[in-house]
Amino acid sequence: MSIDLHCHSHVSDGKFPPSEVVRLAHANGATMLSLTDHDHIGGLAEAHLAAQDHGVNLINGVEISVTWRARTVHIVGLNFDRHHAGLPEKLAQIRSGRLTRLQKIAERLAKKAKIDGVYEGALALAENPDTVSRTHIAQFLCQNGHVADKDEAFKKWLGDGKPACVKHEWATLAEAVAMIHTAGGVAVIAHPARYRLSATAMRALLEEFIALGGQAIEVACSVHSLNERLNFALLANRYGLYASRGSDFHGQGEYGCIIGRPPELPLTCRPVWQLFEHQEH
Ligand code: AMP
Ligand code: MN
Ligand code: MN
Ligand code: MN
Question: In this prediction, what percent of the chain has a pLDDT beyond 90?
Fold first, then answer.
């Protein structure tokens, strides 16, 4: 028995269709799963059908891209009403800049690295043009021998502050949290250790998030070390936040994570799924 509240399908930048993601999670022992595609809830209908077949408790999910103090932060929404009016349009609005951003990144790579065909190449790898992401660009660079693996693509070109990194305005923190709350869900700060914030900046993020009504933080995820898990468990308790747990699975063998079986929450945490019993979706 396991719980995984963060993973991706090919509706955003994951490798597999939603039904396959659910099947794999179930095969690995997940009894509760949330599919959290980037800025998109289009995979949830298919995921629910597969979850019914396998007897998995599928929690509606999404991972919203946010710009906070000129950095990108991800806010996961869990257990909202996916039919809530206006939600698909608001998410489409967040996705709407992805094609122009891809164009800019492609121009940078052509100019600075003499790598051509990035725009068409990345789009060809994306299931939906409006969810085309840096993951698809990294995949294109790999497949064409420009880098050894995706990690190198981010370290050399695509990561924050690297030569092909293009500044982008996503949703504000307030907008993302409001979208989730309006649809009846719980907002979660995703993979907090990834942002490499100073202790002061992390406190500011948590305080702003809590002032907006945010309730949870991802404590256990594949990119967190054991130490980071313990530190964020302490921080969650200090701030009265619920703790979430997710693999952030995109495809086999990435970040060493296993779909359906993320690291466990430290025992001191209040699990975020305690909140689901009091919600109605
Ligand atoms: P985007 O939303 O287009 O900015 O792309 C962000 C996505 O790139 C994340 O959701 C991850 O899936 C992926 N990503 C970010 N950093 C890395 C990294 N260092 N190595 C591999 N994938 C990464
Ligand atoms: Mn991703
Ligand atoms: Mn993320
Ligand atoms: Mn993710």
Answer: 95
Residues contacting residue 124 through CB under 8 Å, at least 6 positions apart: none
Rounded CA gap, 132 and 231, in Å? 33
* Residues of the chain with confidence (pLDDT) below 50: none
Give the span between the Cα atoms of 144 and 14, in whole angstroms.
20
Chain center to CA of 117: 27
Ligand 1, atom nearest to 133 Cα: 3
The pLDDT score that the predictor gives to residue 279 is: 72
Q: Which atom of ligand 1 is nearest to the CA of 63?
A: 10
Angstrom distance (rounded) from CA 13 to CA 10 = 5
Residue ranges around ligand 1 (CB below 6 Å): 13, 38, 65, 133-135, 150-151, 154, 159, 250
Tens of pLDDT, residues 16-49: 999 999 999 999 999 999 999 999 999 999 999 9
- Cα(234)–Cα(229) distance, integer angstroms: 9
* CA 180 – CA 237 distance, rounded (Å): 22
- Give CA–CA dist 275/28, Å, rounded: 24
Mutate to test the pocket of ligand 1, among 13, 139, 257 (most ligand atoms within 8 A of CB): 13
With tokens 């936040």, the residue in question is 241
Take atom 2 of ligand 1 and give the residue whose Cα is closest.
133
- Sorted by sequence, the CB contacts under 8 Å of residue 255 that are 6+ apart come out as 222, 223, 248
Helix (H, G, I), strand (E, B) or coil at 171: strand
